[in-house]
Amino acid sequence: MENIIQITVSGLLMGGIYAMIAMGLTLIFGVTGIVNFAHGEFLMVAMFATWGLNNVLGLDPYISIIIVVPLMFIIGMLVEKAMIQPIISAPHSMQIMATAGLSTVMANAALMIMQADYRSVVTSYGTKSLMLGGAMFNIPKVVGFVAAIILTSLFYLFFKYTYSGRAITATAQNMKAAKLMGVNIKNIYTLAFALGSACVGVAGVLIMPIYYVFPSIGTYFCTTAFVIVVLGGMGNLYGAFLGGLLIGVVEAYSGFLIAPVFKEVVYFIIFIIILVVRPSGLLGKTTRSS
Amino acid sequence: MLNIKNIDVYYGDYQVLHGLSLSIQKGEVVSLVGSNAAGKTTLINTISGILKPKSGEVEFEGVRIDQLESHQIVERGIVQIPEGRLLFPNMTVYENLLMGSYGKTARSKVKQSLERVYKLLPVLEERKKQMAGTLSGGQQQMLAIARGLMSDPKLLIFDEPSMGLSPLLVQEMFKMISEIKQEGVTILLVEQNVQKALKLADHGYVLQNGEIVMKGTGEELLNDKDLKKAYLGEL
After folding, report:
1. Measured by CB atoms within 10 angstroms of the end CB, which terminus of chain B is less buried, N or C?
2. Is A176 on the interface with B (CB under 8 A)?
3. Are strands B2-11 and B14-24 parallel, antiparallel or unpaired?
4. A91 in reach of chain B (CB within 8 A)
5. Which residue of B has its CA nearest to A184?
């Protein structure tokens, strides 16, 4: 019994972090139709930025969020303007080549500049846990989980109650109609890409106290994020949140019951089953028309 | 108010509109009729800035608008109610209406605009929390029109508003268009229902293979023998 509670708690907490990464990816896809294969590398950049601020300026990771998140927002904006905008209506194969290419360039640039070393940020709370109801709650993971809930709520409010937020939703649902309502689609694409990048920036900062950063870390998280995005219904932010939690729990259980190395096998199997039963994902309603 | 001078519009290499000219005076209803693939939707998409003419000019209130982006054209007061409605299906009725007031000038008048459309179409107020995609076809068309009105347009363009509606609803729709006209909105009406469209119109144009082949007052066109033969099924 104690085990069950503990495994569920660990899974949910880790799922919160996965959810944040996946939300950025699904937001970008839902609005622009672009699958950003470099999303994991954006995470890597955010993590290195957090590490750098800690190492050079001695900033606590949680404080550096006020620098890293705007930085990622700006990086996302620039990348969208320079790279994504020219290929926004190009064939999918070309878009994939572009973002996958960016992923390779970023990972290798990081390898060149930072070397392949694993780097971490040492904090006083990194390994601290709270005991509650018979389960251990790792504090940085709890922070990440709470942040994921706050982030999802903020997005909900933004999409529901602001003109820009509604314009993003509207563009995702019917681009031509949004255009006819006077929405500047180019700006909306830039905004969505920048927000998606900022989202992964939040995730990057929050996992720094519990993870190592190295140039190829993006690949690991990005694969998981892809599974979550498809699982939740492509482009569905709340689906990504649920999908993230689900994958976190599945991973924790399979790690415990089978073996940690098999955890990915297990969630890919569940992923395939869900796609067979519900091809549009957990919360996916409509398919996107191109 | 709107002056289209000699425009050529292409889809890729294929020329759709050939030296087309058309003008609309403030406060009138202009109907544009013509068979399928005559270029009607191409023409209004050119006015809305979705397509750009290769040559010729589109002038609105004395200013050239043919090279502007569509959002800039909406800002100037030209709004299209597109064929097939193009609502935001997973947004509520209320949110769809708010999207209609997206433009900067329209935003400052949201309250008045909402009152205006709720008065015109009370059913939308009753259903404001419902997802637009779950409305009936007729209600969706009403929402599309209301969303267009939310921008407080100077020129409102209707693209096939009666398409897919029952005869009773078509009647109601035309009544609504004339009510909107009473409010002083200038209207360009693109319709397959030639008779109804011309009856309502101050001026009419007949479009065929991308060219204007006939123009006149609504009444003149209604009584034209050739037109009757071609579109109204009378001998």
Report:
1. C
2. yes
3. antiparallel
4. no
5. B71
On chain B, the residues whose CB falls within 8 A of the CB of A183 are 71, 99, 102
- The pTM assigned to this predicted structure is 0.89
Phi-psi label, residue B18: left if phi above 0, alpha if psi -120 to 50, beta otherwise: beta
Q: Compute the C-alpha angle B87/B31/B120, nearest 5°.
A: 50
Question: Which residues, numbered 167 to 226 in chain B, qualify as contacts with chain A under a Cβ-Cβ cut-off of 8 Å?
Answer: none
A-facing residues of B in 137-166 (CB < 8 A) are 147, 151
Q: Chain A contact for B86, CB < 8 A?
A: yes
3-class secondary structure per residue, chain B: CEEEEEEEEEECCEEEEEEEEEEECCCCEEEEECCCCCCHHHHHHHHCCCCCCCEEEEEECCEECCCCCHHHHHHCCEEEECCCCCCCCCCEHHHHHHHHCCCHHHHCCHHHHHHHHHHHCHHHHHCCCCEHHHCCHHHHHHHHHHHHHCCCCCEEEEECCCCCCCHHHHHHHHHHHHHHHHCCCEEEEECCCHHHHHHHCCEEEEEECCEEEEEEEHHHHHCCHHHHHHHHCCC
CB-nearest to A167 from B79, B89, B102 is: B102
Going residue by residue through chain A, which has 290 residues, state the pLDDT in tens, using 9 for 90 and above. 778 889 999 999 999 999 999 999 999 999 999 999 999 999 999 999 999 999 999 999 999 999 999 999 999 999 999 999 999 999 999 999 999 999 999 999 999 999 999 999 988 888 888 888 888 899 999 999 999 999 999 999 999 999 999 999 999 999 999 999 999 999 999 999 999 999 999 999 999 999 999 999 998 898 899 999 988 888 889 999 999 999 999 999 988 888 888 888 888 888 888 888 888 887 776 444 43
Cβ-Cβ contacts under 8 Å for A83 (sequence gap 6 or more): A98, A102
The tokens of A3 are what? 């085990």
- Measure the CA–CA gap between A133 and A284, rounded to whole angstroms: 35
- Give B5's contacts (C-beta < 8 A, 6+ positions apart): B21, B56, B57, B58, B59
Quote ipTM for the complex: 0.89
Write the residue in A173, A179, A185 that is nearest to B88 by C-beta. Answer: A173
Q: How far is CA A222 from CA A23, A230, B17, in A?
A: 12, 12, 48
